[in-house]
């Protein structure tokens, strides 16, 4: 059965895992979810259902501009949560 997925969310997760060890920020579940939500709200969703759609979307995300856009959104979200954590 096909599943609807926002591929942007997967890229946010990947980038967050790459840069998180270098950031001075709380890594509790709440803070991580806040970072992810803030970043995703700044980015356009890219929904995929089929494997073909995922491949095409993945190829588009290899463009430097797209990954830079996601990285920028994640870094801004980290800074926002760092300044005002939910706990």
Radius of gyration equals 14 Å
Indicate how many domains the architecture comprises.
Answer: 1
**Number of H/I helices:** 4
End-to-end distance: 39 Å
Order of helices and strands: EHHEHH
Low-confidence stretches: none
**How would the global form be characterised?**
elongated
**Average of per-residue pLDDT values:** 89
Number of strands: 2
Report what the structure shows:
There is one protein chain. With 87 residues, the protein is mostly helical. The protein has helices spanning 7-19, 29-41, 51-60, 64-83; strands spanning 5-6, 47-48. The protein has one domain (5-83). The protein has four helices and two strands; from the N terminus they run βααβαα. The protein has a two-stranded antiparallel ribbon. The longest helix has 20 residues, at 64-83. The chain is elongated.
Features:
ComFB; 4 helices; 87 residues; two-stranded antiparallel ribbon; Competence protein ComFB; mainly alpha
Brief account:
The chain is mainly α.
Question: What topology emerges from the helices and strands here?
Answer:
Blueprint: E1 5-6, H1 7-19, H2 29-41, E2 47-48, H3 51-60, H4 64-83
Antiparallel strand pairs: 1-2
Helix pairs in contact: 1-4, 2-4
